[in-house]
Design a protein that fits this description.
The complex is a heterodimer of chains A (about 325) and B (about 350). With about 325 residues, chain A is α/β, with parallel strands linked by helices. Chain A is built from twelve helices and 13 strands. In chain A, strand 8 and strand 9 form a beta hairpin. Chain A starts with a helix and ends in a 7-residue tail after the last helix. By secondary structure, chain B is mostly helical. Chain B has two domains: about 230 residues, no CATH class; about 80 residues, Periplasmic binding protein-like II (D-Maltodextrin-Binding Protein, domain 2, 3-Layer(aba) Sandwich). Chain B contains 13 helices and four strands. Chain B has a four-stranded mixed sheet with strand order 2-1-3-4. In chain B, helix 6 packs antiparallel against helix 10. The two termini of chain B are about 30 Å apart. Classes of the chains: A alpha/beta (about 325), B mainly alpha (about 350). At the A-B interface, helix 3 and helix 4 of A face helix 1 and helix 7 of B.
């Protein structure tokens, strides 16, 4: 594949993207390349610059510096053509509560030259039975599926979703995920932002972990996790305000990394069945009682912690 | 609603959406349709011709009070209230009485010369007391009372109320719906589609025109039935004036709401735009009362143009060319406001 072909098959390219609001730097030199047909996730905590980035890609905000190319076109030159081919779901848009689901879809459908019929769109998002219900009467999950329906009315080549499942219950989230699966089976490209690591792991082919307006890690979820060099995490706390000395812990067999924060100690480990007995012995030697103990497979969250020393959802 | 699978032109869909949104909001319907009728009814009752009204005269209690009261009670159209001296000024201020007579030889009248009804009461009371004291009238004049339809205050008032309603509902309904859509980020979502931005603004104005038929028709029909207010000009000319007036205020509403981020900010600007026109544009009293130097400015205001045109068509039967300058002023407001609103409109 020549370099030219490679750029052509990219759905989104952006280089050195910068955006500031007054003194606050929201995006600080961000590079991305989203390939055609993939589901690409921007994963990061609130305030990382995900929404600003996606809104620049959507042509709703103007960057202060940097290059953006979407579907081979540029904002400012090909806006109308570009808008015909994009599907967009914004964070926190409240559609008009007085209109029915059907009326909302019909309104959005009227803006596009091509696309499925109103019924077909409602079917795609499994809202046929709610077509005559007012938006105000829909559940959170149904409203969100309707918002996605409005993004699908033109059979977009590229779908942007900003925090699509924030605030939804697990069942509603899974419904939305399967809706996105169907969209992707037909060859659609998706760019989404999320601060849910499980969502990124389930949906995304590739993930860019974003923090403070920069991409700090990029790759498939699997590759990012295995880059930690350890597939498991052991997390524990000791009681009564005592603290374990971390030096000896790092020396335990199979421990690749130790991080102590706010009374909790996290060990990244390759083989938990070797580490755990050794850890318990070590704690006994230090005369410490466990007040908390958990172990899990490493996730994208651990990747974020490894890069920043903070959790994704530090609330 | 039909089950149209493929929508029509975005302008049509946007207008329909706005109409549905409106009729499904009972409060909005009340404020646009019911409230103006209720207001017209209340004002019509308050200002309808009642024939000659009685004047209220206070007579200070004490020596000679009984004689004065007897003299006044023999004259028609005077209502008498005995009143202690220390309450006289208070009663005058509150309008309980319009003149106070201090009995004596000659009597003294206390009244407020700046209030027309007070001056009138003074004259009426004086005539009655003069006659009682022996004055003989040289003649009794013949009278022609003006109760001709089209020349009463209510006839003058109704076109002004109609103009005021077209202004108020036009600005509020457009302003609120736009700012509401902005605060809930609906505008931002629409801006992310290929929708033409002018279509959205035009749809707001078009939807207004549909309500306008109900609103103006209701008020005029009501005024004709209940107060026999005439419509002497052609209905087509009147409709044209109403339509252009609504477009002017629709445009002004869009402009005022084009950048406001909150309902409160929009309300403030709306009132700022409308308040001067309520006062100077001849709704309740003629704008001719204001100084000559201000007249060109007053006549350039959209509500003045609308009220003048409505009165000319309804009361004088003016043809369309006679209200050409008013229509031109209104069209200019509509065009300039719409163009500027489209330019400065905040979608986010």
């Amino acid at each position: 594949m020549t370099e030219r072909e490679a750029t052509q098959s990219a759905a989104v390219v952006c280089r050195g993207l910068q955006k500031r609001y007054g003194d606050v730097v929201a995006v600080a030199g961000l590079d991305l390349e989203v390939r055609s047909g993939e589901c690409f996730g921007l994963l990061g905590p609130n305030g990382a610059g995900k929404t600003t980035t996606i809104e620049i890609l959507e042509g709703l905000l103007e960057q202060d510096a940097g290059e953006v190319e979407v579907l081979g076109l540029r904002w400012g030159a090909d806006d109308r053509a570009l808008r015909q081919r994009l599907g967009i779901q914004l964070q926190e848009t409240q559609l008009n509560e007085k209109l029915t689901a059907e009326e909302v879809v019909r309104l959005f459908r009227s803006f596009y030259r091509r696309g499925p019929s109103v019924s077909e769109v409602l079917e795609m998002v499994e809202l046929e039975s709610k077509r005559r219900s007012r938006v105000g009467k829909l559940s959170g999950g149904q409203k969100q599926r309707l918002a996605v329906a409005c993004a699908l009315v033109n059979e977009p080549d590229l779908l942007f979703l900003d925090e699509p499942t924030t605030g939804l219950d697990p069942q509603a989230r899974r419904q939305l995920w399967s809706l996105l699966d169907r969209f992707r089976q037909n060859g659609g490209t998706v760019v989404l932002t999320t601060h849910y690591m499980d969502e990124a792991e389930t949906l995304c082919d590739r993930v860019a972990i974003v923090d403070l307006g920069r991409v700090i890690a990029l790759g498939t979820p699997r590759a990012l996790i295995s880059s930690l060099g350890a597939e498991h995490v052991v997390e524990f706390a000791v009681g009564h305000g005592a603290s374990a000395s971390t030096g000896p812990l790092a020396g335990l067999p199979g421990v690749t990394d130790v991080l102590a924060k706010e009374g909790t100690i996290r060990l990244r480990v390759t083989e938990p069945h070797v580490v755990i007995p050794a850890l318990l012995l070590e704690l006994e030697r230090q005369r410490l009682d466990l007040s908390q103990f958990a172990t899990h497979h490493a996730t994208l969250e651990d990747v974020f912690v490894a890069h920043t020393g903070r959790h994704l959802r530090d609330e | 609603m039909s089950r149209r699978e493929y929508p029509t032109h975005p302008l049509v869909e946007l207008t329909v959406a706005r109409l549905l949104e409106f009729v499904r909001e009972p409060e909005a319907v009340f404020w646009v349709v019911v409230f103006p009728l209720a207001l017209a009814f209340a004002l019509g009752i308050a200002f309808r011709s009642k024939g000659a009204e009685a004047v209220f005269a206070g007579v200070v209690e004490g020596a000679g009070s009984a004689d004065v009261r007897a003299a006044l009670s023999s004259a028609p159209g005077i209502r008498i209230r005995p009143i202690p001296l220390d309450r006289a000024d208070l009663a005058l201020r509150d309008g309980e009485v319009q003149v106070v007579v201090l009995p004596g030889d000659p009597p003294t009248y206390r009244y407020d010369a700046t209030r027309p009804e007070s001056a009138l009461a003074r004259l009426t009371v004086d005539a009655a007391l003069q006659r009682a004291a022996g004055r003989v009238d040289r003649f009794t004049a013949g009278e022609q009372r003006l109760e001709v339809i089209g020349a009463r205050y209510i006839d003058w008032l109704i076109p002004g109320l109609l103009g005021m309603n077209i202004m108020g509902t036009g600005m509020w309904s457009i302003g609120f719906s736009v700012v509401w859509a902005r605060t809930r980020r609906v505008l931002k979502r629409l801006a992310a589609t290929p929708m033409l931005r002018r279509d959205y603004l035009l749809a707001q104005m078009l939807a207004r025109l549909v309500f306008l038929v109900v609103e103006a028709g209701g008020l005029l029909g009501f005024a004709m039935l209940v107060f026999s207010v005439p419509i002497r000009g052609s209905l087509i000319t009147l409709s044209a004036v109403v339509l252009v007036g609504a477009l002017a205020f629709g445009g002004l509403g869009l402009l005022v709401a084009s950048r406001a981020r909150t309902i409160e900010a929009a309300s403030g600007w709306m009132n700022f735009a409308m308040l001067p026109m309520w006062v100077v544009s001849g709704v309740f009293f003629s704008s001719a009362h204001f100084p000559a130097a201000t007249q060109p400015l007053i006549h350039a205001l959209p509500l003045t143009a609308l009220n003048d045109a409505l009165r000319a068509v309804m009361l004088d039967g003016a043809p369309v060319r006679a209200v050409g300058s008013e229509l031109a002023i209104l069209s200019a407001w509509a065009g300039v406001c719409f163009t500027v609103a489209l330019k400065v409109f905040r979608w986010k």
